[in-house]
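call fold target=Deoxyribose-phosphate aldolase
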Amino acid sequence: MTAPIADLATYIDHTLLKPEATRADVERLIAEGAELGTYSVCISPSFLPVQLPEGLKLAVVCGFPSGKHHAEVKAAEAALSVAQGADEIDMVIDVGAAVEGRYDIVESEIRAVRAAAPAPTVLKVIIESAALSDEAIIAVCEAAVNAGADFVKTSTGFHPAGGASAHAVELMKRTVGDRAEVKASGGVRTRAAAEEMIAAGATRLGLSSSRDILADRTAAGDY
């Protein structure tokens, strides 16, 4: 069953994370997010501060896109973003630590960011699910919940292994249950794919081609 456009829009973090993005691009993103009725816009921290219309939330990435930053650096970046107006932080874990099974490292860095960006700031943890085994996905999701994350998120959209999949979303949701929510991002290029992610358990979608997807047009590319 297809959800009304207004309902689907409320799931969306309207996203611009391209390294060549300009301030004018961000201003257009914000205007479009407000026009479409998306839940938030998601941008890089170097664009802060920004002015948002009432009702539109601001998500900002942290440790993006590689996650290969010291935990202290991620924490400082998150704290500065919150001080400059971020409502939500989307942090990237050290994916290599997860691949190696060093889940204590992953949990420790999430705790550091959570401490730097306490509630009511929403913390989403990007796990790069396409690069992980099912066992690692489960373990990292447990680490995120233990560290106080509000969401686990599939992907940056920049990893060569790929983006979101319904299988990963289902596994992530089954793991976190009611303790956290799931955000699907990376490679979601059609309305059908967006609705598939919601059916699998996602309550938030990271999309850069929101207008095309809401209009049921295939997006040429999505972050």
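return ok
The beta strands are 12-15, 40-43, 57-62, 88-92, 122-126, 151-153, 181-185, 204-207. The chain has nine helices and eight strands.
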